[in-house]
Amino acid sequence: MPSRPEPRSFCLDHAGVKAWLMDPDPEALQRLWSEADRIRQARVGEAVHLRGLVEISNHCLRHCLYCGLRAPSTGLERYRMEAGEILACAREAVRLGYGSVVLQGGEDPGLTRTFIAGVIRAIKQETPLAITLSLGERCDDDLLAWKEAGADRYLLRFETSDPQLYRRIHPDLPGIPSDRLAQLTRMRGMGYEIGTGVMVGIPGQTWDSLAFDILRFRDFDMDMIGMGPFLPSPRTPLGGHGSVAFLAPADQQVPNDELTTLKAVALTRLACPDANIPSTTALATLDRTQGRELALMRGANVVMPNVTPLHLRALYEIYPGKACLGESPAACQGCLEGRLHAIGRTVAKGPGGRKRALHEDAVSCDSNH
Ligand code: SAH
Question: Quick check: pTM over 0.90?
Answer without folding.
Answer: yes
